[in-house]
Specification:
Length: 471
């Protein structure tokens, strides 16, 4: 599944991190051993410096593995794609360690062969481990046998959302049990289990060692076998509502399934993290200053290229300002590098399209690598945006979305962001249907937001930029 903040996911992520940290530590000591042949060391002080280098490399490598998405258990990649990500992340750790850390702290320089040997051993070790576990359920990643109560419209969403093998890593969907009241217009192509739920359900669940039951029936009144469910709960079998199941396994809130009682009894869409709220601006301002210091030359070059391409001829600004809806529905002006011609919206407001012919040559490049977003740092400094949050939308669209899409206005409970969970999980959207899909991820973020979740999203955004996956 996606790397989220439910207890179910933590139980799977922690062993993976611990094992790969151990592999990287072993790689560090292999590098230490091999490099000693070229540059022998005898004194205790040099051994200490090497050990410090091992720890630094392991920390940087782990952050790099996280940043390229290798701790997302539902990563849809072949072994070749996983190897490529490992190569990039370890290579990044090599560069940061050798070219940055060792130059900032010269006292750590000791053996020029240590970092290359360690990086090579790390690539081999982590790649071999990932290859071994890719098609096996080892090290606590056991597949849970799951039974779905219901075989109608709601239950069919599980099948549609979780068709791929990668979507079901960690679970084995035993089948769907129809109940009276299920809508028959939705076709489920998987195993339909016909049985008398009042008489035979308990026997079936026990004989098949079912570990979790998903309640996904269309009509619950007088349809659910409450006594059996009560007995299952006592036996330690998990009983999960379809909304919570979809949220946990896909990292989104299924807005089309929400009913009022679920909102009342869930943790809602407001954050209760008061520490986060109190340091929110300081965190974003510090991050904004850091990014600005690193990227101002790139911003200067971008502005110059936009001016040369058409700004000089048309007199249009290299920046593009546009009204967006922010926290609590307040309107502000977002600042971006202009990626389209100055007359791009002469026919009125419209969604940006994939391969939009209104985009300039420079615009296509800067949008691909999200360079056009960099001027939004000034929105961050003004407190109108954060680094992480739902992307702010235009007032013209928001007015219509609030009328047409349930719970859309809840995304304005937090500051909008330069990047967000929806951008990572559903990176392109140009229709109302796409907006609904992205809203599901936005609501999930709002429910689960935390400082660590924000850091994860920032690191994963690096992957999008690195591989040029922006739109």
């Amino acid at each position: 599944m996606a790397y989220t903040y439910s207890g179910h996911t933590h139980q799977k992520i922690k062993p993976l991190i611990i094992i790969e940290t151990t592999i990287l530590c072993i790689a560090g000591y292999i590098g230490l051993y091999l490099s000693s042949f070229n540059h022998p060391f005898n004194d205790f002080e040099s051994i200490q410096v090497h050990i410090v280098n091992v720890l630094i490399f392991v920390v940087i490598a782990q952050l790099s593995l996280l940043s390229v998405g290798l701790y997302e258990l539902r990563l849809r990649e072949s072994i070749r794609g996983i190897f490529r990500r490992i190569l990039v992340s370890i290579g990044l750790a090599y560069f940061c360690h050798d070219a940055i850390i060792l130059n900032i702290i010269p006292s750590l320089k000791l053996n020029p062969f240590f970092v290359p040997y360690t990086a090579l051993a790390g690539i081999v070790g982590v790649s071999a481990f990932r290859y071994i576990i890719m098609d096996n359920e080892w090290f606590g990643f056991s597949r849970k046998d799951v039974l779905v109560i219901g075989a109608g419209e709601r239950a069919s969403i599980i099948e549609r959302r979780m068709r791929r093998r990668a979507d079901r890593r960690g679970i084995n969907l035993v089948g769907f049990i129809p109940l009276q009241g299920d809508k028959q217009n939705s076709i489920i192509n998987e195993n339909i289990i016909e049985l008398d739920v009042k008489k035979d359900l308990e026997k079936f669940v026990i004989e098949n060692d079912i570990q979790e039951i998903i309640i996904a029936c269309d009509e619950r009144r007088n349809a659910l076998p409450l006594e059996a469910l009560f007995n299952f709960k006592i036996r330690g079998i998990e009983i999960t509502d379809i909304l919570d199941f979809i949220e946990r396994e896909t990292g989104q809130v299924a807005v089309n399934l929400i009913y009022p009682s679920w909102v009342i009894y869930s943790n809602g869409f407001h954050t209760n993290n008061h520490l986060r709220d109190s340091i929110d601006y300081l965190f974003n301002a510090f991050m904004g200053l850091l990014v600005f210091l690193l990227t101002w030359p790139l911003m200067l070059i971008t502005a110059l290229l936009i001016y040369i391409e058409d700004g000089r001829r048309t007199g249009a600004s290299v920046f593009y300002k546009q009204e967006r809806v922010g926290l609590d529905g307040r309107v502000f002006k977002i600042i971006k590098f202009r990626s389209m011609g100055p007359d791009a919206e002469k026919s009125g407001a419209q969604f940006a399209q994939k391969n939009d012919d209104r985009t300039t040559k420079v615009g296509k490049l800067i949008r691909k690598y999200r360079i056009d977003e960099l001027p939004q740092l000034f929105n961050v400094f003004r407190g109108e945006m954060g680094f992480v949050g739902p992307r702010p939308e235009r007032p013209q669209f928001v007015t219509q979305f609030i009328k047409d899409i349930p719970y859309y206005n809840q995304r304005h409970n937090v500051k909008p962001g330069l990047t967000g969970w929806a951008q990572l999980k559903y990176p392109y959207g140009s229709t109302s249907e796409d907006t609904i899909e992205k809203l599901k991820y936005d609501l999930y973020y709002i429910k689960h937001r935390s400082i660590m979740f924000d850091i994860l999203i920032l690191l994963r955004t690096f992957e999008i930029i690195l591989f040029g996956k922006g739109r």
